[in-house]
Sequence to fold (430 residues):
Amino acid sequence: MTDYESIDFFTDKDVLEDPFPYLEYLRAKCPVQPTGHHGVVAVTGVEEAVAIYRDNDSFSACNTASGPFLKFPVPFEGNDVGEIIERYRDLIPQSNAVVTMDPPTHTRERALLMRLITPGRMKENEAFIRSLADQQLDGIVDDGRCELVNDYAKPYTMLVIADLLGVPETDHQRFREGFGLQAQFPPPGEGTDEPAQADMNSLSWLYDWFAIYVEERRREPKSDVLTELALAKYPDGSTPEVMAVVHQAAFLFAAGRESTSDLLATAMRYLAEYPELQDELRADHQRITGFIEECLRIDAPVNVDFRLAKRDTTVAGIQIAAGTPVMILPGAANRDPRRFESPEKFRVQRPNAKEHIAFGRGIHTCPGAPLARAECRIMIERFVDRTRNIRISAKHHGPPNARHFDYEPALSRRALHELHIEFHRAESDR
Fold:
């Protein structure tokens, strides 16, 4: 019997691989549960999670990227640490990313970010997404098999976000290489202004490229998306610094690509596990929307989200002291039996599936959520239309009664390392 009381969620490999039994254990005790690790309070209930997401006066997003490992130069003292957070905010990892910001800075920077994802831009982008979905399928449909994560999902999501942000098509290959989708990132040319090779675990190489784009378009505006990006204004009409624009564009690019790729792999895993579902979605594309929401609910691409209590407060009757790291667990909240009937079961027609918190809530709701949903919907449409009998490769993942999937050993992500599938090409596609 597993001793969940002594398990460290942050390091235990078995829990990182399959967190759901541990999350069930936590929620059974209390939806807001102090843990014995790093002073963290874990939140496993959907109602409690939403309350924290929306309480920006009591909870800061400053530790979103660093979780319980965020350290300040001075100790937290008293019942309100908001002033300490602001005093040392520039020292916080990824403090220039909108996900770690609090109002009023967050309000200003998110307004800039939303200039990049307008309804009009989304509509224009959808034609490209459909074309790209087919292009990616063209490369694998004759083989009757693929490793979906690397052969399809990662290049597909990278090129979608590149098109949305206006990255010139001539530079798409550079971005493939930068994200490790080709052999290696190209070294800078002799005497050119190409950015130097950077650590692929950081966003620095993306910053380099977007800085070049923004500076070029401010010098010589053109009729393109990059010019709109470069000339975007804050709500008060002021012009952002170049790097302010760069940080938001690069973060949207990297985060959007990663989480959407994870969602696509999860969706295809469930589609391949339920053969009868393929016929349902093929016959009625309208059902694909509900299918995606249930995938987001039952296996959210974001494992954890963090907040830092700015002041003494209470959630679900539990006292949370100022300076306490709070760990919101979407994977647990999305299976809260108080909100979702038989939450462990996958149900495409679940009427309230969209009440999940896979994209967060409140002011930090994922700005790329509409794009992620569109990418997944179109990919599923094209897959079910152009193939038949999509199935999990028993050679790689075992038989139906003994499946095994490897997940990335990452605290923040619920990401399949690989997904091998097999299929037949549809007669109508020959």
